[in-house]
Each structure stands twice: as C-alpha cells, then as structure tokens.
Automatic annotation (TrEMBL):
Gene3D superfamilies (UniProt xref): Chloramphenicol acetyltransferase-like domain
Naturally occurring in which organism (per UniProt): Digitaria exilis
Keyword Transferase: yes
Pfam families the record matches: Transferase
Similarity field: Belongs to the plant acyltransferase family.
Keyword hit for Transferase: yes
Gene Ontology terms for molecular function: acyltransferase activity, transferring groups other than amino-acyl groups
UniProt protein name: Uncharacterized protein
Superkingdom assignment: Eukaryota
Region (Disordered): 475-497
Lineage: Eukaryota, Viridiplantae, Streptophyta, Embryophyta, Tracheophyta
Keyword terms, alphabetized: Acyltransferase, Transferase
Amino acid sequence: MASVNGGRDVQVRVVSRRLVKASDTSIDPHVLHLSNLDLLMQNIRASTFCIYPKPSTGVVGFDFDAVVHAFDSGLPSFLNHFFPFAGRIATNPSSGIPEVHCHNQGAELVVGHAAGVALASLDYGTLGAAVRCVHLPYGDDVALSVHVVSFACGGFTVAWCTHHVLLDGKSLSSLVSAWSQLARSGTLAAGSLPCHDRAAVFRPRSPPTYSASLDDAFTPLDGKFQVNALTANHSFVERLYCIDASGLERLRAAASRDRGATRVQALSAYLWKALAGVVGEADTHCRMGWRVDGRSRIVSGDPERRAVVRSYVGNLTTYVVGEESVQEVMRMPLADVAAMVREAIDAPAYEERFQEVVDWVEEHKNQRYVEKAILGLWSPILSVTALASFRNDTDFGFGHAAMAVPTATATARLCSGYVQVFSGPGDDGTWFVNALVWPQLAAALEADEPRVLRAVTAAECLGLSSASQQQQCVSASSDKNKDGGTAPARCAGIRQR
C-alpha cells in the first residue's frame, strides 16, 4: 500500500467488474498471429492512466454515473474497430508462441471508488504513488481492461490496461484517442481507422537475413545475464518532471546551430550532458539509447502501404544507441551533443533495420531476448522513449485529462536509466518526463539552474485544486458506490519502466 501526500493510504473499492463485447456480430471469430516485433515485448504490461479533474460548470449533466454510462454504451462500438482487444491472449500449444483468440470474449470494464481521497492529494512527483496505487488487477490473458475510478473531489481516473505484446506507445495513444473521437461523434475519421493486420507491414524473408551487428545487439532474457534483484530494485529513484513550452523552446534554441534541433534532440542532449557530469571519472564512456517509432521512418513503398503503416496497431519500434567518451560529452556545447543525438537516431536505414529485426526474431522465437544495452552492463546508459510527437485526445465528453501517463511494467532485472517523454493532453505545449534514474542523476537534474525539469505538482503542473478542497468534496460520490463493492484493492510494489 502506498501513501498520498497527507499520509493517507489509497484504497480503491471495486464497485463492479463486467465484460463488454463488441456489438458487431458479423465479425468472424479468428486467431490473430502476432508479429515478430510483438514477440520481443512479451510479459510486459502496458497502460495509459488518465487523470480527470471534476469538470467545470460548463459541462452539462456531469456526474460519475454519466462517465460510467459513456463506457457502458460506447465500448461495444469501440471494440468493433479494436476487435482483438475484446479477445484473449493465449499460448499456441504447438509452438509455445503467444497469439490472440479474437472470439469476442469481452473487454473488462471495472468501476471503482477511492473513498475519502482527492486527486490533488496524490503525490505526483513520483509516478508510483500517483498511478500504481489506483491501478486494479487484471489477468495476463485479458487483452483490454478499462478501470474507471471516482474520487471524493468529484474527479476521476481512467486506466487503459493491456499488454505490450499487443501494441506499442503510439498504438496505445491512438486507442485512447479513437475512444474519445467515437464517444464524442459516434464515428471515426477515415484516417483514424486502425489496421491490425500484422502481415501488412513486415513479413520474415526466406531465408531470414540479418547482420552480425544486429545479432550481437540481443541477449537471452535469462537471470544469468542480469544483475541481482537487490541491485536492480535499489539502484534507482522514480521521478515525474514537467517542462513547459517556453522552457522547451529555450532548450531547443540552445541546442540549435546550423541545423535546428528538434525538441526531442535538445532534451536528449541536455540529459546526455547531465549523465556525463554525474559519471565524471567513474567510467570513460556513457551512452544514450532511443526507442524509435517506425511509422515516421518507413517512407518507401506505395501510398497504400504507407497509410497502413501510419494506422498500424501493434509494435513498430526499434532501439538505437549512441556512445561517446564522458570527457567529450562534458566538453561539447549543447548544440554539438544535439547533433550527435540526431546522427545516432538518423543513422540506421530503418526499412532494412526493421526487416532485419523481423528476420532475426524468426530464428529466435523459442526463447525471450532483450537488447544487451538496456541490461545496464558496461558503461552507463540512459534510454529515452519519446511519445511527445503524438498527442492523446482524451476528451470523451467531459473535458481533457489533466495528464495521460503511459506506463509499462518491466519484468526483467534491468539496471539502466530510463526516461519516458510525453506531452500534456492540452495545447499549451507542456511535456512530462517520467524518469527511473540513478539518485545522483536525479539530484543533478533537480539542482541544475536554470531549472529545466520541475517536479510535477498537482496545482502548478496539473491545475488540480489543493488538497484542502477535500472538505468540500462531493460526499454523494462516496455514498452512491457502496452497494456491490468488494474488498479494497491495494497498491502493489511493482517497478515501472
């Protein structure tokens, strides 16, 4: 169980748990065979956690019952477009490989209540305290479990819970946005229609072909190749930072020279220099890694294939690494480090890179593998997953969320730093940085002047009213959910990456 700021434990009482099926009975039951890129992401849970303050008086007819009704009435149509998420994840008895049985078994809809707790009272400076303790359990075989939880202040949260084997961050973002679009308008725009066909993007070649360098980039996900559990669990601290549009622009301007740096490149350069400063003389080199989305990198082929790639719901990312001496990174101006970031990210020929990964997995399906770099061996490495280029549409009729946090729970004993960058749901240009980093690096980022990254607070960063408003909470929200509840669900101490 974790605590909120005032020392109060968060207890979520489950009011109801039910299955919601797709309403289109003409969709034939089938088995979805996952792609080779999907198979690299097994046993990792993924979710997007949306925090909604109590809507302003301009929202007509709002109460928590209206929120629950929106999901009750809208999810069947939503699942017509995202039919695999009404299915179940299973293991093929012959191959031992995961697959999805799309028989319309139903997505879960779980309704809960956090009694006596206001959203503003949660500790948003640490992701675990604000997010994990509101998450409710769901099965390893469930493709989608939606958790809607009311708070005593009149606000609520929505957690879209699934598994990484089914999708990546971009796909999860599009899933949430599609729900909002459908809930508001009843339809999806033509460009928003999802593609679930794994064969439409990449197929393994015959024979599979890949380079020696790619083969060397992976290692079996085996305890013999990982650090011990105590080292992995106690080497890092969690932080949730924000950076506003003006701060991002100043950083981008400082990182630009002849060729303007993007905001991701500028922030990566800033983090790389901070990492080098912390490493100092402890090591000769330090590294940065990036999860790169293939949708913006695969530009060859006919227009129809490019359209399929853009709307693809599945895993379509790869991992690239840059390495440099600590002293060089410390010496370089920010613009030179940003240029080094750009070169590392732009260097691969991505069409061939993805094809090679697909071919490599084809020959290694019977064992789980992981990129060697993210195990945390050799020189220190900080990995960046930038989700800020695609913004969630979180308004399904009650206003945008104050924050939509993508999370993933890693099962491996990884000992590398990790940051995840995502944009705020509104249009003010705010970015959030979810960090799992060494205490020395967190201290350096928090002591840096001018302060680039600021700890997320309820009032300043999210616009939530102060915790004192609990005295003015809507007490009816506590009473109306008493019937049919089960024992409170308590926070599990799991690590997020």
